[in-house]
Amino acid sequence: MIAMVLYLGGPEQRECEFDNAWCRISLAISETCPDGWIGSIPGVHVAFYVPGTTTLHPKVPAGLKAYFRATHKLVFVNVRVPTDIIDKFDESFTFVIGALHNAVAVAADKLARNDVMAFDRIKMDEFIDHAKLYRTDEGFRARIEAKIRPVTRGQQLPLTGFSSDVGWSLAQTATGGRLRFIRINTAVKAIQGHPELPCLMTVSIPILRPNAHGLPTRDESNELETIEEELVKALELGAKGFMVGTTTGSGIRELLFYIRDGSRVAATLEAAAKYTQGHELRSVIVEDKEWSAYKQLFDDATKAGLISMPPPATN
Questions:
Q1: Contacts of residue 306, Cβ cutoff 8 Å, sequence gap at least 6
Q2: What range does the domain containing 14 cover?
């Protein structure tokens, strides 16, 4: 299977020609993916990075960079988009199609090397070629009408083909002399405002051993990361919810998730309790269909200056 995500390097690139081409192809690819496939079916996760005014994605090399993660049965492929095609639809469309074919070829090789054999490269290439139906405006409208799907960006993308594993950036702010660190996921802009994720869940975790700046020690940071990883893993299984950002400061770490509804996450929070190592989890769930909390956190991080974080370690 194939999952796609797009990282725009600046607000000026929303609805640019590359964004338009990527959204059309992503919609076509989503039609081929069964619900809940990530983690159960081998696949490839292709991330496209578009340089812009906010970030140039300096850590993403030119060309194609790939790594395998056994826990997800996925090959993650990072693709840096050339700046000279961003405002050209045909060139952008051709580039995405070509990058997907290349990613599938690399994924097939890496999965085979790791003894993950149930990956049908021929079928994946057919899925990519299926997306060519969306190239013309007439073909795109016809397919949308046939599927009776909205074309609003964010609403059209399937949650089952999405992962928040990559696309993280870091920012540092200070309020009243107190440091505050923000981690924000820019990849979730692809599903921002999704109608199936109308609720904001904030999980607050008091820091047990804060330093003079109200921040956790290295050891406690590792403990907090374990709690975070377990929550993310449990919520993303079945697309019950996705983490969009975190804040750390003044003796508190907060994790922000957008979820389907509170009734589906109660068991997840209970299951995470065994990993808390003495930490208390306080959760608050409110309706936030417009994703206002994410927008505010993204604005705060952008003003402070985003630093792209490296992708997860390879296995």
A1: 54, 55, 169, 170, 171, 184, 186
A2: 2-161
